[in-house]
Amino acid sequence: MLKLFNTLTGRQEVFEPIEPKKVRMYVCGVTVYDYCHIGHARSALVFDVLRRYLESCGYNVTFVKNFTDVDDKIIKRANEQRVSCDAITTKYIQAYHEDMGKLGIRVATEEPKATEHIADIIQLTERLVAKSLAYAVEGDVYFEVANYSEYGRLSKRRLEDLQAGARVDVDERKRHPMDFALWKSSKPGEPAWESPWGAGRPGWHIECSAMSMQHLGETFDIHGGGMDLIFPHHENEIAQSCGATGKEFARYWVHNGFVQVNQEKMSKSLGNFFTIREIFEKSEWSEEVMGEILRYFLLSTHYHGPLDFSDQALKEAKNALNGFYDLFGRLAEPGVGTMPNPSLTQAIERSRVGFTSAMDDDLNTPVAIAVLQGLRSDVNKMVDKGLSIEGRKEARQEFRLLGESLGLFQADTWQFGSAIAETLPINLDGTATVRLVLNESDIERMLIERREARNRKDFQRADEIRKSLAAQGVIIEDKPDGTSRWKR
RNA sequence: GGCGCCGUACCCAAGUGGUAAGGGAGCAGUCUGCAAAACUGCGAUGCAGCGGUUCGAACCCGCUCGGCGCCUCCA
Length: 488
Known about the structure:
Rossmann fold, elongated, 17 strands, Four Helix Bundle (Hemerythrin (Met), subunit A), 4-stranded antiparallel beta sheet, RNA-binding, alpha/beta
């Protein structure tokens, strides 16, 4: 039974969907005017894992994640670069998919864009105006917080407290400093759509209300996003949606903590952020390996807490993951083991129970990973004792199965990169191509030579080969039968 | 000023009333021609500090110290 921490109630609650076996969830995506950093990756990953886990529990999940593709920052960026807004958003949406794809984050069921829902947004705004929850001033339309009695319910703030912190440059046309724009009149040269209030564009918060309703209905199960969206974005979404429909909006509100650098929030304004692509570009490991390292790292802390990003943390994640892939290597080898499998069956059963109860406990991925580490240790012992071929296959399959929710252990083997790679600064788009200097057949050839050397007890030559490969990042492990395996 | 979070071993990190999971790093041993991997063992009598409640507290309460977030665009 899955329990989730619900920001709305401030408690952990048992998750029960509106319709049995069906989950409808909406997650706030990104404003597409720049490349994503690890903070964005964490958020995307947390909800990807939630979705995967729900699916593994047998739910049919409709997962909607939006792109904000009309916004001040986009307009600014477009003007700076003298291109259209459309060019900017198209570019960064594509980049989003590339980056998140490398992290194994699956595309959502629906990925709507604000600009595709202008009619819905206008309609929703009209509903709010008709209910006296919004008012129009000179082509702008504002939500009137004073007329919505439950304003502050999500963020646990009172309107009076908010006034104290309100900005100085309050628009005089607003009836209350906290009133926020549903519709903005547009200046010349800005993207604009016709509306009952003249040419304009939507405010930020209204798009999510409109799109979630359109794709999931007026009431749905889970709404997620980063902690920083609680106020004002999600607070405003609730006001707009509940205000318009008079119904409950989302039932469970789930928010992930920040990625930090040196204990400080990673953010554009502080300039202490690392983009996802930058991390992949600087990585000394292959894309596939780096993606899994990042995933492991991001899931090694509970999603609700802060997470400090550092090279050392990545290195530790990589080392931890090495243990799993070393085991998978052993499991893949032909062997003559005959050990019966009852103890394996028991270990697997234990792990399933442990894994499920960890994930059920508000997606406690650190504990879930600890359970997998436990299974790794158990299986290693069994392999030492001579686990049968069938047992090895079963064990590998089990890691794949349990790892699926976390998106781990899906690769067959790890191919490490660039200790032995060279960078060729060529391409048209300015990026570089990394090419391996040593290919697999080179390595195999050297291993054969070394094996021959060892057979004639020429250990000096054997060690030379070992050293030479090691210098290029290839590590040799000798097996009892006289053959060797290698890894990077 | 208002609201809120965090402080667990060298590092990361679970645990939120019943006597400190897991990982990384390290050390020692077994195995190995050597090595790697694996296995075995070692590692916080204590959970920022000080008080209090309790038979019992890392977990509850109070105070203090240190770090951070939101209130403005932000995953």
